[in-house]
């Protein structure tokens, strides 16, 4: 079976795909979706020019992001950005829910346009969705209810400002609840840093280190079946440091071992660690330790 790729650039087009009537606004809509696809296989990749915020109850089937299955639990909030691809695969998908869909032009000129860039969860994968508690789900549903009322009202000069204000509240709640999810993850399974370091170690063992410079966060996140933003945000909650900061700490620790374990030059150590330019290694080392590599080596001789 070939995978069908569908991209929506027009909101009316997307409504038609879902079997819905024409949207009330060309750049903004609130949709209710109920699907029960028993008879047909689903194998498609969807993307659009829109932001999407959905509250879903997926009861069966597979929703994939990359190689990872999406956790099909009730009370799930999925936030996607323009051009993000979602792969649907399975012989049966049952889902009910509501979604708020809006083009970037709808928020242009409003403060939320700048705020939305700060919410890294729009860069998360679908498998990194927000799983809400019953109380959180109720709070989210109430805000969506209010947005829906405004959407279907006879729209006037106040409508857009009210919708954008409610949308801002919805995004702030999502940010708050994601932080709770990270904290809960830390309490029940605080080994993300160990997994992160294990993947960096594998990178070295597989001889990739010297092949293509130091591993990137994208390399490590991909190996962990996560998006770089989700990995970095989760590590920040668990360790107080971002993924890049943790990677730098690991590199410095390896550098110290190499500096003290042999008489090789600092440049050679830098190349072994995957740095193309020894000067960059020296700057990073001094920034993290307060000493140059040579000063560090002398300090422990």
From TrEMBL:
Carries keyword Repeat?
no
SUPFAM superfamilies listed in its UniProt record: Homeodomain-like
Drop me one GO molecular function for this one: sequence-specific DNA binding
UniProt key word DNA-binding: yes
What are the UniProt keywords, alphabetically? Answer: DNA-binding, Transcription, Transcription regulation
Q: Which PANTHER family match?
A: ARAC-FAMILY TRANSCRIPTIONAL REGULATOR (PTHR43280), TRANSCRIPTIONAL REGULATORY PROTEIN (PTHR43280:SF32)
Protein name listed in UniProt: AraC family transcriptional regulator
Native species of this protein? Uabimicrobium amorphum
Its lineage reads: Bacteria, Pseudomonadati, Planctomycetota, Candidatus Uabimicrobiia, Candidatus Uabimicrobiales
